[in-house]
Design a protein that fits this description.
This protein is α/β, with parallel strands linked by helices. The protein is built from nine helices and 13 strands.
Length: about 375
């Protein structure tokens, strides 16, 4: 498929100038070069055909260069604009750079080398901006699609989960053991899917700035106790012990969102430790921050894989440390950063890992 030609629009009220510029640029570029001696006619052309680079004189009878390029910017916001000026118009050219964002100005009589370089740079600039703009639009469409999809998926999943619960609790009649086992597996799968959908929705809300933190004062050790109690059955089943610090630290934060972070870190620690291993949760105030750490004596993580742990959809390591969605740690990072904090990881293969998040001391006080 033939590549579409780029467009250079040249505007000057003197035909000899536009003809000279067209001849010069035709020798250097195989693009479409359109010349106009009327800025009004040039605007009409750009309105219907666009432009990649626009060269404009400053002094023209119908409108000056600043007025013309201001209109151009409204029509094609990302095109590269270059102004040709006389020596006495340098101040106006600088004004155009500041007010409407022209790429640069070139004084008459111009240097052919400088002019060609300016146009070449202009093409590169326009192509880069258009590429970035397209990527942003595609990312927005993708995120909007994910948000709509995840929102629409929640309703049927919740309905399926509730129906399965009705079967399993006997509301819809008695079941034999084989049927219960089959339906219990289905229930677990639907719950896992709902967890993924909810995580995707949360990620979208954080990335789009739609989620507002609901901050309040609460004791951090109370939150840690709640998280430990919720996950203790999982730890007991794996014969993993959990020790946690009950130091009373009052914190001003979104309790529900921080609970999500602690539960995720604690759940990961349990999943990646063996029977007889130990997990330690600690909270302390150090210098200007409050630090919460979850330390395990599990399998550990290779050093080269640590930078990937907090990336979206990352499974963490090349050896696929988990079968999770790859969203838990990414979402945890989003939550902590939304609190103006940061989260980090230290790990050593065969010895375990320490996940630590810290929040500014301005949101935490000893009581």
């Amino acid at each position: 498929m033939e590549k579409q030609k780029r467009k250079i629009v040249i505007v000057d009220d003197e035909r000899i100038i536009t003809d000279t510029l067209k001849m010069l640029l035709s020798l250097e570029f195989s693009d479409e070069i359109c010349t106009f001696n009327s800025p009004v006619e040039a605007l009409e052309f750009i309105q219907h055909n666009g432009a990649d680079v626009v060269l404009s004189d400053f002094l023209m009878p119908q409108m000056n260069g600043i007025e013309f390029l201001t209109q151009v910017k409204k029509i094609v916001p990302y095109t590269c604009m270059i102004m040709l000026t006389g020596y006495a118009d340098k101040e106006n050219a600088i004004k155009a750079i500041n007010e409407i964002g022209i790429h640069r100005y070139i004084e008459k009589p111009w240097s052919n080398t400088d002019l060609i370089l300016a146009v070449r740079n202009g093409f590169e600039r326009t192509e880069l901006i258009n590429k970035l703009t397209l990527e942003q639009e595609m990312n927005k469409l993708r995120d909007d699609f994910i948000a709509t999809l995840t929102h629409d998926l929640r309703t049927p999943l919740l309905a399926a989960i509730q129906t399965l619960k009705f079967f399993l609790d006997g509301t819809l009649g008695e079941l034999n053991d084989k049927q219960k086992q089959f339906l219990d597996t289905m229930l677990t799968s639907n719950k896992d899917m709902l967890g993924l959908v909810n995580a995707l929705l949360e990620v979208y809300k954080y990335e789009s700035g739609q989620l507002v933190l609901c901050k309040d004062k609460f004791l951090l050790n109370t939150l840690l106790t709640q998280c430990v109690e919720e996950l203790k059955p999982l730890a007991d089943n794996k014969k993993v012990s959990i020790e946690y610090d009950e130091a009373a630290i009052e914190i001003f934060a979104d309790k529900q969102e921080l609970r999500r972070v602690v539960s995720n870190l604690l759940g990961n620690a349990i999943n990646h430790t063996q029977a007889g291993d130990k997990i330690t949760i600690s909270a302390k105030v150090a210098e200007d921050n409050v630090l919460v750490s979850v330390e395990d004596t599990g399998v550990g993580i290779p050093q080269e894989d640590i930078p990937n742990m907090f990336r979206r959809f990352s499974q963490g390591t090349k050896s696929k440390r988990s079968t999770g969605t790859g969203l838990g740690l990414y979402l945890s990072r989003q939550i902590i950063e939304a609190h103006q904090g940061k989260i980090s990881l230290k790990s050593e293969l065969g010895k375990g890992s320490i996940f630590t998040f810290e929040l500014p001391l301005g949101v935490a006080l000893n009581v």
